[in-house]
Write a structure and sequence with these properties.
The chain is an all-alpha fold. The protein has one domain (2-269). It has twelve helices and no strands. Helix 3 (49-65) crosses helix 11, helix 5 packs parallel to helix 8 (153-165) and helix 8 (153-165) runs antiparallel to helix 9. The longest helix has 28 residues, at 188-215. It starts with a helix and ends with a helix. It is an enzyme of class 3 (hydrolase). Its EC number is 3.6.1.27. It comes from Tigheibacillus jepli.
């Protein structure tokens, strides 16, 4: 009986890890899909340890994919601060704007943490998926001109506020930031890079703040948790690679179709 219980526990962690990992990089809301899945199959994992681990899996995938950009930005930002090299200023400003864009979600996430939990239910997700559908449909044909060096403080603040809206379950973080960035006139490649670079400090900060809680969580199953971390990492890696190709081809409308169908089904049946 214990072996069977352990098997189903492991399977639960694998499935939830895959759902989180695959849906995190694409604009359909990972948090919303976890809420839907948990409601349909009556699956629950208590505590924050699981969510922190699978988000760290997604974070690792994003860092690996954007590793060359991260190294360049770090190196050039240091060169600008220390040596005042003018050619490194663009990368320094890109990092500075990422920091600015991170602040709203960090502040509001801390202040509204309990209230967000109160609205984490399928009916909320159904409505917010429809909102995501409308937003994605609005930008489906946009082709901006702004490149990395054209981003300004106002752009960073607006994209940061958009990320804050994604604290609402069912509002995709990547979707909200991409929509805001593209409405501001950013090229798809720039919008995508800024959006996922923005995920790094938010996820890393949450992971660092919660790491002590994970270590002292006596009820957390570590082996299934580590497996879920690995599954989330692999799923996020391939999902982001896939999504980058979709962005390059300008096929965001298909995600709008999906969010519309999913939202209607959730409102009708959950």
């Amino acid at each position: 009986m214990d072996a069977l219980t352990n098997f189903f526990t492991l399977l639960k962690y694998i499935v939830l890890g895959f759902i989180q990992g695959f849906t995190e990089p694409i604009p359909i809301s990972s948090s919303g899909h976890l809420i839907i899945f948990r409601d349909i199959f009556h699956v629950e994992i208590h505590g924050l340890s699981f969510e922190v681990l699978v988000h760290l899996g997604s974070l690792l995938a994003i860092i690996i994919i954007y590793r060359k950009d991260i190294i360049r930005l770090a190196k050039n930002s240091g060169s600008f601060l220390i040596k005042r090299e003018e050619k490194a200023k663009q990368d320094f400003l890109f990092v500075f704007y990422l920091v600015i864009a991170t602040l709203p979600a960090g502040i509001f996430g801390f202040l509204l943490e309990d209230k967000i939990g109160d609205i984490s239910r399928p009916s909320t997700v159904g409505i917010t998926l429809l909102i995501t559908c409308i937003a994605l449909w609005t930008i489906r044909n946009l082709r901006g001109k702004k490149m990395d060096g054209d981003i300004r403080l106002k752009d960073a603040i607006i994209v940061g506020l958009a990320q804050t809206v994604a604290l609402i379950p069912g509002i995709s973080r990547s979707g909200a930031t991409l929509v805001a960035a593209m409405l501001l006139g950013m090229k798809q490649e720039t919008a995508l890079r800024f959006s996922f670079m923005l995920y790094i400090p938010v996820s890393l900060g949450a992971g660092i703040l919660s790491f002590s809680d994970i270590l002292h969580d006596k009820n957390f199953d570590w082996i299934p948790g580590i497996v879920a971390f690995i599954v989330a990492f692999i799923a996020s890696y391939f999902a982001l690679k896939w999504f980058m190709g979709i962005m390059a081809r300008g096929n965001l409308k298909y995600f709008a179709y999906y969010c519309f169908a999913a939202g209607i089904l959730v409102l009708l049946f959950l």
